[in-house]
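Table S2 (continued). Query chain:
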Amino acid sequence: VSLSWFEVAFTEPIDMKTQMMRCLGGALVAASAATAFAAATPCGRSDADTSAPSCASLPRMAPALLQRRSEMQQSSSLQVEGASPLTVLSWNVLYTNFDCCGGSANKREQLANVIAEADVAGLQECMSEDELQTALGERMSKAPNTDMFNCVFYKSGRVGFEGVSGRQYLGDDARDDYSERYFSWAKLSFEGRPFWVFSTNWCLDGPCVGSAGGLRHRLSAERMLEKRRELGAAGLPMIITADANSHAFNHDMDDGVQFLLANGFEIAGKGPFAGGTDYIFVSKGDWSIGEQSVGPPGPALHQPFTVQLSLQESSPMRASPEVGDGRTSCEGFDRWPDIDGGVTCDSCTALVKTKPYGGLCDAYCASFGHVCMAAAEEMNEDCEVKSSHQCDEEIQGTSDMLCTCSSPHSSEPLSTTAPTEPHTDPMENSGTHAPVDTGNEPLTCQAYSQWPSIDGGVTCGASSCRALVLTEPYGNRCDKYCESFGHVCVAAAEEMNEDCEVMFHAPCDVEIVGTSDMLCTCRSREVLQPTTPGPEGPAPTPAPTPEPTPVETTLDCCEPYGMWPEVDGGVTCDACTALVLTAPYGGRCDKYCESFGHVCVAAGEEMNEDCMVKYSEECDVAIQDTSDMLCSCRLPSSAGTCPAAPDPTLAPTPAQTPAPMPAPTPALTPALTPAPTLAPTPAPSLAPLPLPGTSRKIEVLARQVLVDGMPVHLKGVAWNPVNKGDIQPSDDFNGNVERDADIMARAGINAVRTYEAITDRAVLDALWARGIWVLNMVYVSGGSNTSSVISKVNAVKDHPSILMWTIGNEWNYNGLYYGLSFQESVSRLQEVAAVIKQQDTVHPVACIYGELGGLQDVAARITDVDVWGVNVYRGKSFGDLFDVYAGLTSKPMFLGEYGADAWDARFNRENLVAQAEAVGNLTEEIMEHSSLTGGICIGGFVFEFEDEWWKDGKGSPSMHDTDGIAPGGGPYPDMTFNEEWWGLVDIDRNERPALEALRLVGVPTAA
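Corresponding output:
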């Protein structure tokens, strides 16, 4: 704080500052002395003639220091009980009141007269804090760097500024067509107690409609709370002022509003504009909410409104550094993570969330360096005990639990700083970590050699059970990571600099976003006897178990197992061999070993989730119908220095770490040649669905499409085979159908959706021969006459592979690629559907729409459409898509496009694992909502089968570029459309793991 005072005073570094700091020491003393010195200097007085020659060379520091001293004196008088509450204002002040957009000083003066009545103001559409500061004069002070859009102002003397403020872009996937969207923050203080103010304005219209808009609002809320954690503000009282634009999403039921309400906030007040779209939220348990007032809009459209807020005595910031009852002592509750609804009790007990800690109070207490003393289920979201439990007993069937946590050092504060140096204990590669008596609850876990996906080998000491691990395979969540090898997460964090130093903590079940790695603390499910107090007091801590004798391990042949990705269940064997997952690597060990810079020397299927070989395979042959495989991987530099791979006729002995290597024997090093195409792989057994054939009766009944009375489910792919060097619409169906259809059939794909019409019957014959339906696009461009569909329909309407005709492709976004208005597009598509019905009474007509916004009205107007396809990109889950669609129309639906691309714009490289994860997850959600089992969805089409190199308008169709032409965000994990990287196979038909992920999801059996 003292440094920030000096930076206000001195416009350039000078020796005087350094000498004063050294001599005076204390921050308050230094600031007061500097103030006195400045005031005593002739050039430093506020009434001095600073243009005088004797003053010209001196910094103009006195006015700022004197003002700061005055603020300090005024602030000190506020630290009394019974002070009047804060008046907090939220107001969208309208961008047209600022010079950028036709405003005037007169209008801003009208705004300022209202704002100055508040103690704290969080504004929206504030285009210049400086212009508004000029209008406010000395009545209010700006929190710097909070414009444009969401300025924060405070009343100096009544409210203090703690030196931290700023703003952040909410992201392309949270903006709209009007503007980019931001949020701002400032750390303030009242009655000597710090609190935070955030201000924001969420998107509206354009891409921000329907459930897609709700998702954008939720993402906005999530990112604000992520920033709160990053700033270290999670334990402090907080106010959020927001123009949430929630009137477009059922007001308080808006996804963003609901996210805040579900994560520790409550509504303190609402403005009346548009039925209540302006909010003041406050953190639960921190504030007493008083009177609300609403004023006239003045030169703005929205009405300003204020709420009276008082900091509660029981707010976490009122807690002493340690609390307790004499028997139990602990840190203040502001340091406790995941307290549910702010409920705290006597005797170091709080109501906390169960999910991040597996329902275990010992895991919860250990997460912040405490020891569990008691565990219970509460009666009614309060401190009354319903049932008592052991500390290591999982409390099930509830979202929260009462945990009593004790500090192991009641006489001295606990350190929350993690080790700053990666640990290189030679014991870490063998055995189970024995507990070390560090004064904290001991943690036990498997040796780090058994931990998957450790990033760069960074671990934080044997007794910490913490390592730096990759985020991507586990959805950025430490609970998922720890579960992957049979452990329980007890703490999660983002690291500072690829080491063990913590930047910020997060709950175990919350995604740590925007990073490639995270610090996870994992505990074995087989825990030691807890230190639960008995009749005579706490049980003694078990004596430390001696560490096992270290096993020497050579790194000449392969990297330590802690650096091997996707090890299944932590199973590792002799001779650089491990049991690994098949799905991300297409069942091939050569692909697996290459993924971390090794070469494959042996491959096999295991007997029973162990190291026993059931049968062996060549490295480049897919191991079929299994979730894991045994791969032997060597460093390319290890030729001739390592033992031979395990004899496939002998069962390797299971081992937790590589055994000492025998004397070197010659070993062949496989050449790193391009991988061959996967061998044919049988698809999972599918439901007995009807296949294409002659004389089929196709009908739409309720939420299903029936063929000869049997419902179909489409496990489909978008197919648009544009060859390398060509551009749309030069689809080469004929030249690609044989090899493409073979790959599709092996993956269990039973339908394709096209973007141009297939009228070549030979192409349809090839698809029909492999049991693949065709949804044939016959009208995509508004520049074509409605009659253009007649020849396309009549050419192939008698072919048995045709299931439906499709018209339009997310035309609500593109005006049918011809500049038609929305209403013109609606009319055109109704005309086209009617023409198709005149030519063909057998096949249904489907229309492809973008997301769900406005679909209810459109479906009611385009009456000749029988089935709706929707293109949806919402990360790796559809969220409430199916529930919302069910309320819009009674007609069946399918996903016209879904999936993820293989390029990760965050790191500028391929991310095959993330693509496979998204495709697998999304396909499973579609199956869960299948019309075969009572759902509303008849299937979906992954976008897309193969890469298209023509789509980057700034690149070349002969090059694989990393830019796309589609706007916005949505696909997992980078929320960026990387248009030339969407294929389940690349343009040369090399298969990606996402194809295998699709293959592994079977079609449900019809009810």
